[in-house]
Design brief:
With 164 residues, the protein is an all-alpha fold. Helix content is 72%, strand content 0%.
């Protein structure tokens, strides 16, 4: 992996609670909050200065802007929700460009596992543990924050364990 273990170690303790919050709010309310997305950006702005070389830091800040524009276009086309688009933009600077292939495979696996797990919980007695969650009643929409947040955590854990 291109991300260094040190960089992943700096980001992981700050990013994990935000991503867990994103997972929770998206499954329970079908909403990824702007506060969570701004917190993710804020962590990068502060910790990125410590964890990355300055030139890399600046390029990764640009990734936020690029992914926000791409996300806005995809949201306008009805491909994804606004919260999902903003989360992807906020998460973009944490990803080393050389790890995009690893990230895509990781996301595909986690997306499949998230979808299956969500559907099992939705259609079994497990649903009674949180009977009022909005995602249980959605038939056409899936809480992508479940997969997106989990993917960012998993990426950073893998980076910590196997990073350069």
């Amino acid at each position: 992996m291109d991300i260094t273990a040190t960089t992943a170690a700096w980001f992981l303790p700050f990013v994990t609670p935000i991503c867990l919050y994103v997972v929770y709010t998206d499954v329970s309310r079908m909403k990824i909050t702007n506060v969570a997305n701004m917190a993710l950006v804020g962590v990068f702005v502060v910790i990125g200065l410590i964890a990355l070389p300055f030139e890399t830091y600046l390029w990764r800040l640009l990734a936020i802007v690029i992914m926000l524009v791409v996300g806005m276009v995809l949201n306008a086309a009805g491909v994804m929700g606004a919260g999902d688009s903003k989360f992807i933009a906020a998460a973009a600077p944490y990803i080393a460009i050389g790890d995009l292939r690893v990230l895509m495979w990781l996301f595909i696996g986690i997306l499949l596992a998230s979808f299956i797990t969500h559907r099992i919980a939705k259609n079994t007695p497990l649903r009674r543990l949180a009977p009022n969650w909005t995602s249980w009643t959605e038939n056409k929409k899936f809480p992508m924050g479940l997969a997106l947040g989990t993917t960012l955590i998993a990426y950073l854990v893998l980076g910590f364990l196997y990073g350069a």
